[in-house]
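User: Could you write out the 3D structure of this protein bound to S-adenosylmethionine? I've included everything you need below.
Assistant: Certainly. Input first, then the structure.
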Amino acid sequence: MKISVSAASGVESVTKRELFKLGVENAPAINGRMTFEGDDRLLADCNLWLSTASRVFVVLSQFKCTDFDTLFDGVSDIKWEDYIPDDGRIVIKPKLVQSKLNAFSATQSVAKKAICERLKRVYKRDFLAENGKTFEIEIGITRDFCSVLLNASGESLHRRGYRNVYGEAQLKETLAASMLELSVWNPSRPLCDLFTGTGTIAIEAAMKEKNIAPGINRTFDFLHFKNFDKKVFEVAKSEAIGRLSQEKPLKIQAYDIDEAQLKKAFIHAKNAGVEDVIEFHNESMENFKSDLLRGVAFANPPYGERLDERPFIEKLYRAYGKVRKSNPDWCFYTITPVSDFERLFCQRADKKRKLYNGRIECCFYAHLGKPQSKS
Ligand SMILES: C[S@@+](CC[C@H](N)C(=O)[O-])C[C@H]1O[C@@H](n2cnc3c(N)ncnc32)[C@H](O)[C@@H]1O
């Protein structure tokens, strides 16, 4: 089958690297999607192991499409009965870009009618009850070329299942994992999450240290596909459990001045099975000082979106800059939309990259460490 993986803007390169580790050698990225051939096992592994991807789809058909008749025929030619049982609930999500077909709800109803007509014929029914599991189908038409995709993940892969109490300004788990993958950090290097909030960066790092598959504690829509062999998933899941690291993980440091946030972070860490790896410090990141060499610090500081917060942000970012100066051999990675961050931090970044935190356009700054010998 053809599998397609979507990733947020700016992180496609790291998702490709993760795919390579799963054995996918050639997956060109087009408009944030990477498409390649695979089998049931790869579909399961992509969902279980990709820490940076948003969703995994099965590509059911692709054809040129400039009118509703072609859309109807193209969609009804697909063997929907191989995937959807007679009680399946069908949800259509059109994505229309620069195409003759540009009416969202008409596209939605034509595609749905094509699927339902076919299923009624095959299942010999007058109507479909649609009271079973949900099957989400994306009808993507870009420049008159239609791709019909079946969502194999279900809800977005950032929902790992460990975050059940909500905090303010949380990072998506997939963005936190992408920041780790975009950095020089690896599990053999010390790590500190300086503004941990509900713990997302620290927890994602701890999961990588323990080699916990990001999707191990959640369910996926492909498990309801009629033609998917569930035994394949059971094997993939038990192999993932067998791959848990047996090495003693390095302790991860996590700082926050807000005790309520740290309590949430601890609950999330426990849910993810990594509370033993993270040391939570209920104090300002200004107190962070490490004797460990070649560490990597991550920061998702407050952004101060209101104008009256600007003096607080300036003071905080200046204090943060001093933390880097007192840990010169550490690398510092910061995500923020504050445009004069480098000026406040008092140091030019070695690298920068545009990343989106939800809808907020941010810059991801890398300040690399200066090697030093500590004796
Ligand atoms: C944008 S939130 C971090 C959200 C986090 N990445 C998550 O996913 O939940 C910023 C956090 O910085 C904390 N903070 C503010 N000033 C701080 C300081 N001086 N030292 C440490 N933490 C601070 C706030 O309490 C808040 O939890």
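The chain has two domains: 2-151, 173-211+245-367.
User: Perfect, thank you.
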